[in-house]
Amino acid sequence: MPSNDSAPVDSTPSGRPATVSSSVSAKRVITGVSLWWMASPVAFILSAVIGLGSRDRDPFWEGVSVVLLWSGIGGVVVAPAVGLLAALRVPQRPARRRFAIMGAISLLVCVLAVLFWEFAMECAPGQAC
């Protein structure tokens, strides 16, 4: 006589079918990564304000500034790639499109930042290089 306490082979421990569980978790990842990407400019601005505003160089606020900086960099670089991979895992065509656009915008921001850095490193007028 079969026991009733064993779960079916194609379900998760919660009893839901495996496809529904992975779809729900992928949608949560997509939402979280989207929010991370949208919050990264705020993290950059806060990092600059905290980093430039602390005159006494308190180690705590320097640490907060560094964490915010890396959170912003990760949001720009990592979030579109992780989101696109999660959107490819489940049939989410609008999410794939959104993450492709997010990746293009992030790439544009990175290129502009590199160009700004190059122009900022030029010699000042009247100085010998």
Summarize the structure.
74% of the residues lie in helices and 0% in strands. The protein is mainly α and 129 residues long. Helix 1 (18-53) runs antiparallel to helix 2 and helix 2 (59-89) runs antiparallel to helix 3 (93-120).
Structural class: mainly alpha
- Largest β sheet strand count, sense and barrel closure: none
The DSSP helix count reads 3
Task: Please give the number of β-strands.
Answer: 0
* Fraction of residues in H or I helices: over 70%
Inertia-based shape: flat
| Low-confidence segments | none
- Rg, alpha carbons: 22 Å
Strand fraction equals under 5%
How is this structure best described in words?
The protein has 129 residues and is mostly helical. It is built from 3 helices and no strands. The longest helix is centred in the N-terminal third of the chain and has 36 residues, at 18-53. The radius of gyration is 22 Å and the shape is flat. The mean pLDDT is 82.
Q: How would you describe this structure in keywords?
A:
single chain, 129 residues, mainly alpha, 3 helices
Describe the secondary-structure layout.
Blueprint: H1 18-53, H2 59-89, H3 93-120
Helix pairs in contact: 1-2, 2-3
